[in-house]
Write a structure and sequence with these properties.
single chain; about 325 residues; alpha+beta; HIT family, subunit A; 13 strands
């Protein structure tokens, strides 16, 4: 009598490492139809380049991203929907890899495939516990994960800076080589704010307004500088933290971190009516050089003037950044 072996999908509960991550992508794109279709659709997205202040922005028409761009993040809407990052509310087919941040509070994260990708490899990395999107006390984890995911750029969107789940702490990550800022940083003019034994901090004086650049091969110094920066930032009344987006990656033992200091959540174009409307809610990816337009009409019409206006609205000006840099300098020396 022949015995028949049943094939059972093995649950993905392994720890994060490079091979397990490759296996996770392969498994998820073979079993999760929605994710597979959205990743395949990336091969068909329209893109164009628009140079603003000497910086080559990419614009991407990506219809699947309307889920994020148009997300309602007001308190009432958040309270009325289930958190899609909590384990019990995720799709049954969605699996992940465990990552425990061994430093400080040993927070437990899950590395997931983002089913609505911008990058060819796009990850969402939520905290296992349901806690608010607040970076203070978790920049250490960001540095550790960036080191672990050496082929990726990690990013953090503040609760009012593009995060579509401001009620559940999470990072995201995308494969290196996708964001223009990775290649453009060395070409942009900058001014040194602080130089430590293993860390340098600059203000960008061209390309993108409101951006600070930190390069360091010391996690301890990076945390000190971050905490000093954080302590100088303005917290609006009713908010829980300063408005900022963060990009971070590690290459050859050096962390590169870009802090975008925000002044506004969504630009006036988002709320405008008629032809003036552009459904675009800037977050880390947009500020890193890839503007995401989920509507084709916006992709077709967006111009260098529009991008410049959006940047000037949502991030502090070069002049405001210089004043902030002066303040940071006084507390670092």
């Amino acid at each position: 009598m022949l015995s028949i072996k049943k094939t059972v999908n093995k649950p993905m509960s392994e720890l994060l490492n490079s091979q397990n991550l490759i296996d996770l992508f392969r498994e998820q794109l073979s079993t999760w139809e929605q994710a597979r279709e959205n990743y395949e659709a990336l091969n068909r997205v329209k893109t164009k380049e628009i140079v603003v202040n000497g910086f080559p922005f990419k614009v991407q028409f990506n219809p699947a991203r309307i889920v994020s761009s148009a997300a309602k993040v007001d308190v009432k809407s958040i309270q009325e929907r289930k958190c899609f990052l909590c384990k019990e509310n995720r799709p049954v087919v969605q699996r992940g890899l465990d990552y425990i941040n061994t430093s400080d509070n040993a927070d437990h994260y899950t590395v997931l495939i983002n089913p609505f990708p911008i990058f060819p490899k796009h990850l969402t990395i939520p905290l296992l516990k349901h806690q608010d999107q607040l970076i203070y006390g978790r920049f250490d984890a960001m540095l550790n994960i960036a080191k672990e995911l050496s082929q990726y750029t990690l990013f953090y969107n503040g609760p009012k800076c593009g995060a579509s789940a401001p009620d559940h702490f999470h990072f995201q990550a995308g494969n290196k080589g996708f964001l223009p800022i990775e290649d453009e940083l060395d070409k942009l003019s900058k001014s040194l704010i602080y130089k430590g034994d293993n860390t340098e901090l600059f203000e960008l004086t061209s390309g993108i307004n409101g951006a600070l650049l930190m390069r360091s091969n010391s996690k301890e110094e990076s945390l000190i500088v971050f905490n000093k920066i954080y302590s100088t930032l303005y917290v609006k009344q009713g908010d829980s933290e300063p408005m900022l987006n963060i990009l971070c990656w590690m290459s050859e033992g050096v962390w590169t971190t870009v802090f975008f200091i925000r002044s506004k959540h969504r630009p006036s174009h988002y709320f405008a009516e008629g032809d003036s409307n552009i459904l675009l809610s800037p977050a880390s990816v947009d500020l890193g050089g890839v503007f995401i337009t989920p509507l084709e009409k916006d992709f077709d019409k967006i111009s260098a003037i529009d991008i410049k206006e959006i940047l000037e609205e949502v991030c502090i000006s070069f002049e405001e950044l210089h004043l902030l840099a002066s303040k940071i300098k006084t507390i670092l020396y």
